[in-house]
Amino acid sequence: MDDLYRELILDHYRNPRNKGRLGEADISHEDDNPLCGDHIRLDLKLEDNRVRDVGWEGEGCAISMASASILSERIKGKSLEELGRLGQEDILEMLGIELGPVRLKCALLPLKVLQAGAHGLAGWPGDEGE
Amino acid sequence: MNIGVDDEILLTELEHHSNLVPWQLLAQERGAIVRYVPVDGDCSLDLDAYDALLTERTRLVSFTGMSNVSGGITPAKEIIERAHQAGAVVLMDGAQSVPHLPTDVQALDVDFLAFSGHKMCGPTGIGVLYGKRALLEAMPPFLGGGDMIRRVTLDGAEWNDLPWKFEAGTPSIAQAIGLGAAVDYLESVGMDKIEAYEHAIADYALEALSEVKGVSTLGPSAAERGAVIAFTVDGMHPHDVAELLNRDGVAVRAGHHCAMPLHQKLGLPATSRASFYLYNTFDEADRLVAALRRAQQTFGLA
Predict the structure, then answer these.
(1) What domains does chain A contain, in order, with CATH numbers?
(2) N or C: lower Cβ tally within 10 Å for chain A?
(3) Which of B236, B244, B270 comes nearest A2 by C-beta?
């Protein structure tokens, strides 16, 4: 009935990919969205500066969980430099939906955690110009 | 208020942040201590614990007349009576209860009562603080400016009578007229009637929601509550529930409803919440239920 909850999102929500902690991760980071209590922790294993394996854990709405699941699939094999170039548009393209400002934060939380863990960035993706 | 070092301010776990944070700030400023009356599983206040928490150090008791999450109506008269026996001053947060129930400050014997315009068909930016005359007369003004003085010289000023002593500067004229109209309107409908209607619609909606598998509602039975109904849906995050209902034409809110401590106590990050008032219909309760079933279908849960 609704584009926001298209099959891709619901599929990843119900059957999250790469969910679970990684033992001995090279990079591990977690964060919350204080607005709604969503929580994401992301573990990365690296090899030659590339993502060899990824695991994540989290609690939250379908948008944030699906975003984490889809992102975890897309970043395998990518270099840290490539991860650093991922932005808001890439997430929206992966999810294939348009979001208002509140739900946008749900979608961006996994990327925020990734950028904070991989590159020490503190802000929300997309806020750089503000 | 005469609150000093190690004095105690007694609140409850039910409170909206607006009846928590100002007291926490005051306690920080004065070195006072804030304590909380706990709630049980259906969000009712534990009155035995209340008795134990009331001590000779308790200077102020402040509590909500109705929870904005569970809808539960608190036993105001009893809370006030016991606070007075312990020698404490009592402030009742009526932001939720005043719009929905008849309120008689003299029968309650409450020292202070606060409520907001925008929760009762009135404008934003205005509220009411009632206080007993003797207490208000003993209090200094908190804002200086026009209207709150009787006479000003270069050496000082004399305060105006109540209520002007507390109304410095140009008043919120438009808001006051708007709130007055809202009060007249609610009085013309009848607060008794509004209360009875809300009990009836809460009873109907709670019953209808109880038939939806996976839906749990918070709070006490319809007779002991107003018609605000917070609920959870198994397998769905409250924000997803609200998003789907809103897109289906049913306006509900999701989040902690400015009552994070209560949600923490209940072990819930958030809830979805439907609020019924005098303008809502029984048919709308049915539409809420139908939209919930459709939302569950979208998530493959029904």
Answers:
(1) 7-119 (3.90.1010.10)
(2) C
(3) B244
